[in-house]
Design goal:
The protein is 48% helix and 13% strand. It is built from 17 helices and ten strands. It has helices at residues 17-36, 56-72, 86-95, 105-108, 122-132, 149-166, 168-172, 185-193, 213-221, 226-242, 249-262, 278-292, 314-319, 358-375, 390-411, 422-432, 438-447, and strands at residues 5-7, 75-79, 112-116, 137-143, 175-179, 196-199, 267-272, 300-305, 324-333, 380-387. The strands form two sheets. It has a five-stranded mixed β-sheet with strand order 1-10-9-7-8. A five-stranded parallel β-sheet has the order 3-2-4-5-6, with helices on both faces. Bound molecules: 6-O-phosphono-alpha-D-glucopyranose. 6-O-phosphono-alpha-D-glucopyranose binds at residues 81-84, 143-145, 148, 151, 206-207, 290, 418, 421. Keywords: Cytoplasm, Gluconeogenesis, Glycolysis, Isomerase.
């Protein structure tokens, strides 16, 4: 069986063996600290053992709840933001049909899935309420803290719609709350109203929570195989924990990106060649951005969807300020393919491709781009994923999670907190007139 691997051969011209040898010792130290749980943020390391040590009773309950939602709902609304949103969406788009919500119900066999509470746009919510219409639906409200404004507002609106449609008692049976085991407004509301609840463990931060109920319930509703996802993550864990630096792709990824950062490559661009990976990049950006971007340090995580963005951002990557390196996510065996056929008259000049399939064209574009970008002084790394299935996604999630822990320690930051995200919230609450923010409000209004 294959595995998720890192190939940095195309970046070899930018990095020497000595540099790798030097940093490998630091990486091994960081790993020791991470696994011994004696480094910064060590009260948020529950994700390390999650693939092998999770709540089996809750896991079974997640599957049961998913079955109920599949049987009584045409639509599931998943409400959450950041780590309480991106993992589920990344997995569902990676694993399920590329046009999941648009294919026929008969073919899909599972509810349509939409996301809310990931912005404060009234126009978006109004549109989504129209999409649900009079159809049967359920809601999975996800918030670790239980107090985040965006999902709280969206939940209030969908809760009302449910209660109007089904009455309070039946509505409560269609609401699934994923939150802290004991505290927060959402937990209190769930207890008060009798919702089924799932737990975000205390020691698993939001951006590391995709393999808890946070990600697992929506992923199960979409029809994906949770057992395979967990098995893949367990394999990823084994590889990350047990292999020495020379064979350990996750450790090597942390090492190479830090070498490049120290050479002034302060942006990492994650590139994919499959639209269904767009949200994997979004999940990755939160994981890396919130983990590393602090104390005035860090690599800025950016992403591009290719070849799409070669027609927009491609110019900058090839030729603009040399401040970045690129990491290509390569799905080795595409999950779908279309053959290009010969035409009698070659008006579009494409007959030279007759008999070739789209994946051959896509991979040729990828390989050509990697060489062009390398020639343009953009070091290229590649993360290879053998196939687009649950097992390898689980492995990929773990690969990136483990690497960011190591990478954060190499940088000398606490990769498991996110103090910076509070600043905008304080200002927003003050401007909204939330009780307790009166003094700040006066100050801010003067500045606007
Ligand atoms: O799950 P919640 O508590 O609602 O948090 C949702 C997200 O928003 C916060 O502001 C943090 O920046 C994220 O790390 C978190 O994933």
């Amino acid at each position: 069986m294959g595995k998720v691997t890192l190939d940095y051969s195309k970046a070899a011209g930018f990095i020497s063996e000595e540099e790798i040898g030097y940093i490998s010792k630091l990486v091994e130290d960081a790993k020791e600290q991470l696994v011994a749980k004696n480094g910064a943020g060590n009260d948020f390391l529950g994700w390390i053992d999650l693939p092998v040590d999770y709540d089996k009773e809750e896991f079974a309950r997640i599957k049961e709840a998913a079955k109920k939602i599949q049987s009584d709902s045409e639509v599931l609304i998943v409400i959450g933001i950041g780590g309480s949103y991106l993992g589920a969406r990344a997995a569902i788009e990676f694993l399920r049909h590329g046009f999941y919500n648009n294919i026929s119900k008969e073919e899909r066999k599972t509810p349509e899935i939409y996301y809310a509470g990931n912005s404060i746009s009234g126009a978006y919510l109004e549109g989504l309420l129209d999409v649900v219409g009079d159809r049967d639906f359920s809601v999975n409200i996800i918030s670790k803290s239980g107090t985040t404004t965006e999902p709280a507002i969206a939940f209030r609106i969908f809760k009302k719609k449910l209660e109007e449609k089904y009455g309070k008692e039946e509505a409560a049976k269609r609401i699934y709350a994923t939150t802290d085991k004991a505290k927060g407004a959402l937990k209190n509301l769930a207890t008060e109203e009798g919702y089924e609840t799932f737990v975000v463990p205390d020691d698993v931060g939001g951006r590391f929570s995709v393999l808890t109920a946070v990600g697992l319930l929506p992923i199960a509703v979409s029809g994906a195989d949770l057992d395979q996802l967990m098995a893949g993550a367990a394999e990823g864990r084994k590889l990350a924990l047990e292999q020495k630096f020379e064979e350990n792709d996750s450790l090597q990824y942390a090492a190479i990106r830090n070498i490049l950062l120290r050479k002034g490559k302060s942006i990492e661009v994650l590139a994919n060649y499959e639209p269904s990976l767009h949200y994997v990049s979004e999940w990755w950006k939160q994981l890396y951005g919130e983990s590393e971007g602090k104390d005035q340090k860090g690599l800025f995580p950016a992403s591009v969807d290719l070849t799409t963005d070669l027609h927009s951002m491609g110019q900058f990557i090839q030729d603009g300020a040399r401040i970045m390196f690129e990491t290509v996510l390569n799905i080795e065996k595409s999950r779908g393919n279309v053959v290009i056929e010969e035409e009698a008259v070659d008006l579009d000049g494409l007959n030279y491709l007759a008999g070739k399939d789209m994946d051959f064209v896509n991979k040729s574009a990828m390989n050509g781009t990697i060489l062009a970008h390398t020639d343009g002084n953009v070091p290229n790394l590649m993360v290879k994923v053998p196939e687009q299935n649950e097992f390898y996604l689980g492995e990929l999630f773990y690969f990136f999670e483990f690497a960011v822990g190591i990478s954060g320690y190499l940088l000398g930051v606490n990769p498991f907190n996110q103090p910076g995200v509070e600043s905008y919230k304080k200002n927003m609450f003050a401007l909204l007139g939330k009780p307790g923010y009166e003094a700040q409000r006066e100050e801010l209004l003067k500045r606007l």
